[in-house]
Inverse folding.
């Protein structure tokens, strides 16, 4: 019998075909599966003509005070495996960018947001394992549920000791386990031990990383920790654990001393992306980025030379502070 000629398969980005196969069918609102094709770039995120929603005062404020209908980001794309930093002054629209990526900010009908080549309107109606692991988010204001520290990190996912220990180490939580009354079995939250702001931030980062998302959005998560801890998290978690494993990371930060290590930088001002490129290129250009460097780097140097004795006030319990 004659052998049938095999048709060449289309290339599927960085990931192998077996892994990407699970992204081919996306469930829509009516529950019907929809074939999204083979041409999508996997594990990246993109925004096209993101605009402020009509008559939505909250979103107008969130997007840097732009007038309704004014586009503040056009054709914004993060390539798979990229570590992108977003920087800018307070109120410049950094968090709005992440909200748009999450589909949490109302946009005009012509706006489009997608992840892994899939529209956000479909993204949140995927069924497991399609949705599992795709997008992760660590908010600027971390939250803690009333449970043990370990349960706060796992957040319903299976406990894998090797993976758990690695993430606790890279998120600088190992030293905290030694001072908590019952280690990671210590109950935290309203009915338990109250963590400091820096510790809550690190638990939030660990939770997001443990979920192993393909795309991780980090909203100024290093602001609550001191310079030394922040540098450890940046090197061991963001660079090694995330970028080292091919994850796509969007990091909002004003710690500009870290930017030479990232792949690309977006500069936000007045709700708009006013510049982007590598740190070296932006420094040569001057402009807004150069002004930010002058403002923020001096503040970072001062903070690094005067580290606090207790990060965020230490760990608080009913019997008072537990010294670090």
């Amino acid at each position: 019998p004659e052998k049938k000629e095999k048709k060449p398969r289309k290339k599927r980005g960085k990931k192998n075909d077996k892994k990407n196969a699970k992204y081919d069918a996306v469930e829509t609102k009516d529950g019907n599966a929809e074939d999204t094709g083979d041409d999508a770039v996997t594990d990246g995120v993109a925004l096209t003509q993101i605009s402020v929603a009509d008559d939505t005062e909250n979103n107008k404020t969130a997007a840097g005070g732009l007038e309704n209908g004014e586009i503040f980001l056009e054709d914004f794309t993060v390539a798979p495996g990229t570590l992108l930093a977003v920087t800018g002054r307070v109120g410049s629209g950094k968090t709005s960018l992440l909200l748009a990526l999450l589909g949490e900010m109302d946009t005009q009908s012509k706006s489009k947001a997608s992840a892994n080549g899939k529209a956000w309107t479909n993204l949140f109606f995927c069924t497991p394992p399609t949705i599992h692991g795709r997008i992760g988010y660590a908010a600027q204001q971390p939250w803690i549920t009333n449970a043990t520290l370990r349960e706060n990190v796992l957040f319903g996912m299976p406990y894998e000791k090797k993976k758990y220990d690695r993430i606790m180490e890279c998120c600088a939580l190992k030293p905290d386990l030694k001072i908590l009354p019952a280690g990671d079995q210590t109950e935290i939250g309203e009915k338990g031990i109250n963590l400091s702001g820096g510790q809550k931030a690190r638990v939030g980062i660990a939770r997001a990383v443990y979920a192993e998302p393909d795309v991780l959005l980090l909203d100024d998560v290093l602001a609550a920790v001191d310079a030394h801890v922040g540098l450890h998290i940046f090197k061991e978690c963001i660079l090694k654990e995330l970028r080292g494993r091919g994850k796509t990371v969007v990091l909002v930060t004003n710690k500009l001393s870290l930017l030479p290590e990232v792949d690309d930088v977006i500069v936000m001002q007045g709700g708009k992306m006013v510049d982007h490129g590598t740190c070296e290129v932006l420094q040569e250009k001057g402009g807004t980025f150069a002004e930010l460097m002058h403002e923020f780097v001096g503040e970072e140097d001062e903070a690094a030379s005067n580290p606090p004795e207790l990060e965020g006030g230490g760990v608080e319990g009913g019997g008072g502070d537990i010294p670090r």
Remarks:
- The first helix runs from residue 17 to 20.
- Residues 40-306 form a domain with the Rossmann fold fold (CATH 3.40.50.300).
- The chain has eleven helices and 18 strands.
